[in-house]
Each structure stands twice: as C-alpha cells, then as structure tokens.
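Lesson 9: reading folded outputs for more than one chain in a single document. The general rule is that every protein is listed as its sequence immediately followed by its structure tokens, and records are never interleaved. Here is the first one.
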Amino acid sequence: MAKRPIVEKSEQEWRERLSPEAYAVLFEEATERAGTSPLDDEKRPGTFVCAACHQPLFAAAAKFDSGTGWPSFYEALPEGIDTRRDFKLIIPRTEYHCTRCGGHQGHVFGDGPPPTGKRYCNNGVALRFVPEGEELPALVE
C-alpha cells in the first residue's frame, strides 16, 4: 500500500516545475512512448533521481538494457520507492512511486536479470540522471 508522500505540492506547483510530459507521467500515471527517452541509452556511472523531487531512486550500476525501450533497473535504492497493485490493464501489475512526492515512475516485473530477477521499467521523463562526480540536486521541499 502506498504511503502518504512527504512532499506535497498543489497541481499548479508541480505543473510549474515540470514539463507537461513529465507531469502527465508523474502525477496522472501516463506512460511515455517506448524508445523516446535518451536515458534508455545512458551508460555512465551516476544516480537516477526523481524528476519531480530529486530523491535518489536508482544507482546507474543497477541499470541494464531490457530491450523494452524504457530505462530499466534490477534494483532500486533503499527507501526510494513504494509499490502498489495496478489493475488498469485488467491483468494485475505492480506499479511503483517515489516515496517523497508520490510521483509515478513505472512498473516492476519479475523478468529481470540476477541478482534480483526484477525489472523496474521506468519512464525516462520521470527521472533525471546525475553523472558520478556531480553533486546531487537539492531535495525539493
């Protein structure tokens, strides 16, 4: 069950901070088209943070090429995400959200590589990549 987000902003405040595409994914649970995110090809060391509140969600070392057209990871950073069941496509899936702002990131499946066997299939527009050696952005309050 999803917990109440730590960061709560009005719809207008989030819309002012985000692109229309990012807002639709993060707060209306839309899905970006496969193959449209440059983050799918990102291979440098670093950290992937929530595009809305900047909470670190994934280490680049956990990223793999799933062939789906979306950035995919086999493991999330501790405390970064929360999951809940999604029945929008009739077949139940597990969606995940940022624990700080509640922003929708994507869905997790059980067809990933070792060591976890999980595939966190993320909307690229819901993420921001911070290369290793660069300071992480301040958390949005």
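And here is the second record, again sequence then tokens.
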Amino acid sequence: MSHLRVLGADVEGALEPINVPAYVIDKHGIIRWINPAGQRVVGDVRGRQYTSVCAPEETRHAREVFAQKVVGGAKVTDVEGVLIDANGERIKVELSSVPLYSGGHIVGVFGEVINVEEDEERPPHPRLTPRQAEVLRLLDRGHSTAQIAQ
C-alpha cells in the first residue's frame, strides 16, 4: 500500500492551492484535472485533448512523450516545450510528468509545469559553444545530469 494511502492524505486537495501548475490527463489524452495555477496559465481546459494547449510544432513530440508513459516505457519525462496560454500567446515551459497507476494498470499521466515565466535570456559567453551555454542554463534551473543528457 502507498505511504500516502496509509496516511489517508487528500493529495488532490493538497495540489489544488499550490502555486505550481499541475494537471492530470487520462490514458486517452483528455485533460481531466488542472489546478488553479495551471488554469491561470492555459485556462480551464478540462475535457479537452492535451494537444490543444500545445503549440502546433510541438504536437508530434507531445504525443510521443505521452505515448511513452501510457505504454509504460517511461517512468518520468522532463521536456521543454511551447504551450499556448489562455490569451493565445506562446509560452516556453518545462514539463515534468509521470504515469498514474490504478490496479497495476496505467490510467493516465500526472504532470507539473515548471518555469512558466520566460527567463530573461542572457547572452552566451563568447567562449562557450551553444551546447555548453544550454548545459549551464539547465544546471542553473536545477536539472540533473541525466535530464541534461536527455
């Protein structure tokens, strides 16, 4: 039994008020839950296909990442992407997500949106390659070595 179940914790109730945008997508790709912080970013998109909030050029990659989790091939994914916010504007974000299980079967995906606000891009140091500058930026954001390599 899960340690959270032993506690009898109300995880949904705890996730509602946090300031980190969070969401749940069912195994068919429908957004079933989004906390208020997430709604402030993309609006109330419950009942919509998750790709409806992705920038058009991100849709294919979003489907690939989602499929990896739904078929059980990925336990966690951390990716950068571009979403369409509630005002129709493009925003660059980092998404971290995991599969949700019930009775040993994957029933959906839980995720969080990180770095919603656009970081001020600092010009790269003239002696760094573009990849070196990217690695430093990801380190600054707290990414692990494995996440950076991915």
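What the second record shows: The two ends are 32 Å apart (CA to CA).
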